[in-house]
Description:
Layout: H1 6-14, E1 20-27, E2 33-39, H2 40-44, H3 46-57, E3 60-65, E4 86-91, H4 95-103, E5 113-118, E6 121-127, H5 133-147, E7 159-161, E8 177-178, H6 205-208, H7 219-232, H8 237-247, H9 255-291
Antiparallel strand pairs: 1-2, 1-3, 3-7, 4-6, 5-6, 5-8
Helix pairs in contact: 7-8, 7-9, 8-9
Amino acid sequence: MPDFEAPGRYLRENFDREDRLAVVLIHRETERVEQKLATAEQIASPKFQAHLRAANANGSDVFISMNTIRPEAVGRTKADVDVIRHLYLDVDSGGREAVDRILNDSRMPNPHHVLETSPDRHQIIWQVENFDKAQAEEMLRNLAAAHGADAAATDCSRVLRLPGFRNCKYEQPHYVRDVHDAPSQTVYGPDDFPRYAIERQVVHHAAKLPAKTGRGKSQSERDFAYALRHLERGDDPNVIESAIATFRRYDKRNPDDYARRTVLNARVRLAGRETVGVVAVSEAREQSGMER
């Protein structure tokens, strides 16, 4: 049975009332993306929650930004992030045992939340202060490498699932829930986290993967086609970028940059098509005039 009070409670526990956040809805089957920017107070309101609940019931996953968005921003890029409110680890392998190893590490501070986002997958969340964006991302990369967490989920513009809503990836209802029994009451600073002596390794995937064979499209080609299709129907480029970055967060080292480049290339392609179309119409008119 879902806890309908969980989303509002989570928002009030983790954000100030006037914190501006991004809510992202991604429909699992149609890939339709909806992004809205609003204050934590507005998102926690009954009217906003009813909208999210209806979207979730109709197959849309619900995500929330973990750091605040600048008042004048219209998107959710790294440049749009205002204040770092959280650090987080995406533990997508090893199940509860992997989470317990992190919780039992004496060097690690006690988290505020451990979200079970799907069977055997968890997100660990700490409330923080006095981090700038570069500090936060460097710390996340170090922690992820030390604890075997998802290295792609280390960008400060990340959105995570909102507790109390169903994960639409599964036929059997699975509601995101907090499974941490002893949440911290402390807001942590940079000196409260360990700095592990781990050499960062950059893997050049393109050099290691075998040449593509067969006629199937690569995921990058599908991402490009997705961007082109949604641009053609007039969707907001920022929302398209958010959708691609969210879907590629597990296999791209910098999913936000990848998404920006994909959408930019699609816009260039679309602009070229429009230019060709204008030239073709102009030539047709000239030819028509000549024939007359």
